[in-house]
Amino acid sequence: MPGKSGIRDGLIGPARSALQRGAKLVELALFPSFCKLCGTLLERAGERVLCAGCLQKIVPETASSCVCCGRFFDGEGGPHACAACLERKPPFDRHRSCARYRGELKDALLLFKYRRFRSLGKALGRFVVESLAEEIVLWDGVDVVIPVPLHPRRRRERGFDQARVLAREIGRLRKLPVAAGVLRKVRNTAPQTSLEREARRANVRGAYEVARSDRIRGRVVLLVDDVFTTDSTIRECAAVLKRAGAREVRAVTVAQA
Ligand SMILES: [Zn+2]
Ligand SMILES: [Zn+2]
After folding, report:
1. Has residue 36 been placed in a domain?
2. What is the pLDDT of residues 72-123, one digit of tens each?
3. How many whole angstroms from 57 Cα to the centroid of ligand 1?
4. Nearest bound ligand to CA 54?
5. ∠ CA 112-60-137, rounded to 5°
6. DSSP string covering the chain, please?
7. 188 CA to middle of ligand 1, Å?
């Protein structure tokens, strides 16, 4: 009796797609899954966690942003540097995020981060690459992509490291090398969301360390994280990477709060 792949290999065109449809129907009957936001049955090929309709509601921000820290401006007007960046240049060279942390994007990020719907990382990574495709100053000349790391204990609790999943997808789509173990979190910190701005800076001070400075010396680094709240985490990571010899540190996040 021929193996499963043998049967499949013998099929062409309509027969193969009928088989795939059949497989999808069996999957739906045995393990129906529903969109975690709207409850629609996920029946299209490739749909996982969220339906295509909910994913389509996640769109890039149209307001302009600070050319340096990437904060979105509320009013009209072209891109320029914000007052805070003009007064004191941050340790990172520039940061961009795709949209504000709200609506379906916020829900998707929460699902991705806290509920182990790891497969959302692909859609979110693609969203970053597509919505920031025209930001030449972000991508041009990048040597290595580095995710903002979780503390190993947090990673064990959660089961994966969300920034690492995003960094891999971004690296794959932009054809850039990803170096996950280069920056490490050496001190477990309180969640940044629970703290005020000054406390956030103190909270992350000394929390990161460069394990392999040979991988970043003289290089242009692109840091990747999921959410940008205050700039404390990116600042601290950028300062540590620069002390270890990085020539430039840029950062990209999916959303800013
Ligand atoms: Zn949905
Ligand atoms: Zn700024």
Report:
1. no
2. 998 777 778 999 999 999 999 999 999 999 999 999 999 998 766 888 999 9
3. 9
4. 1
5. 100
6. ---HHHHHHT--HHHHHHHHHHHHHHHHHHS--B-TTT--B--STT-BSB-HHHHHT-----S-BBTTT-PBPSSS---B--HHHHHS--SSSEEEEEEES-HHHHHHHHHHHHS--TTHHHHHHHHHHHHTTT-HHHHTT--EEEEPPPPHHHHHHHSS-HHHHHHHHHHHHHT--B-SSSEEE-S----GGGS-HHHHHHHHTT-EEES-GGGTTT-EEEEEEEEESSSHHHHHHHHHHHHTT-SEEEEEEEEE-
7. 35
Nearest ligand, measured from the Cα of 34: 1
The CATH number of whichever domain residue 192 belongs to comes to 3.40.50.2020
Q: Which residue segment(s) compose the domain that 175 sits in?
A: 54-256
**Is residue 31 domain-resident?**
no
Is 6 inside any structural domain? Answer: no
Neighbours of ion ligand 1 (CB under 5 A): 35, 37-38, 40, 51, 54
Name the closest ligand to CA 256. Answer: 2
Q: What is the pLDDT of residues 192-214, one digit of tens each?
A: 777 777 788 888 888 999 998 99
The tally of domains found in the chain comes to: 1
Higher pLDDT, 24 or 74: 74
Q: Global pTM?
A: 0.85
Q: Is residue 155 part of a domain?
A: yes
